Amino acid sequence: MEKNIAYIALFAALIAVLGLIPKITLAFGVPITAQSLGVMLCGTVLGAKRGALAVLLFLGLVAIGLPLLAGGRGGLGVFASPTVGFLIGFPVAAFVTGWITENWRRAPVGIAAGVAAVIGGIVVLYAFGIVGMSVVMGKTLSEAAMLVTAFIPGDLLKAGIAGMLTSSLVKARPGSVLSRS
After folding, report:
1. How far is the C-alpha of 44 from the C-alpha of 178, rounded, in Å?
2. Distance between CA atoms of 39 and 36, rounded to whole angstroms?
3. Which of 58, 64, 71, 112 could lock 104 by a disulfide, CB 3.0 to 4.6 Å apart?
4. 163: pLDDT confidence band, cut at 50, 70 and 90?
5. Model confidence over 44-71: pLDDT tens digits?
């Protein structure tokens, strides 16, 4: 129990720290950050439930006003911004990523984690992000989808990094990758 709580808190902190990495804000108000890598790692390392809980803890801290998002943003106002869909999608993305990593046992962990990060951390997350951008910005779904295409190369790189880090962690400390234990 205590180990799970510590891991959940640690990964919520990891997402926050990854928001400190220098970011680029696109013209339509959505920043490119490394925080989605943290969401992917929550799933690949912690598994579905613990990964989603870590992201929910992070979002709870953001909601109460801690400036943990890229650019030092926090508070309830961020849930009315163009990034709202991505924020709402974070825990779902971590859950799906974790579920795939937990259940796809036939593949080596690095491959399973990398593919899971693409499906959960990109496909699922973009689905939420596109809908959120469409609603907040008054764009059609296809217009919002075109806006997020700028994120695809970086997010594919993050998914690869998540797969490699998870694989390396399994080799170095197998018991610490809860998605596979």
Report:
1. 8
2. 5
3. 112
4. very high
5. 999 999 999 999 999 999 999 999 998 7
Identify the three-state secondary structure at position 108: coil
In order of their start, the domains of the chain are 2-176 (1.10.1760.20)
Q: How far apart are CA 29 and CA 107, in angstroms?
A: 38
Q: What is the DSSP string of 123-175?
A: IIHHHHHHHHHHHHHT--HHHHHHHHGGGHHHHHHHHHHHHHHHHHHHHH-GG
3-state class percentages of the chain: helix first, strand second, coil last, to nearest 5: 75, 5, 20
Compute the distance between CA of residue 15 and CA of residue 23 in angstroms, rounded to an integer: 14
Residue 28, pLDDT above cutoff 70: no
Q: How far is CA 64 from the centre of its chain?
A: 20
Give the pLDDT confidence of 112-130 residue by residue, as tens digits.
Answer: 999 999 999 999 999 999 9
Rounded average pLDDT over 119-145: 97
SS3 25: strand
Distances (CA, A) of 9 to 59, 60, 95, 154, 176: 12, 12, 16, 26, 14
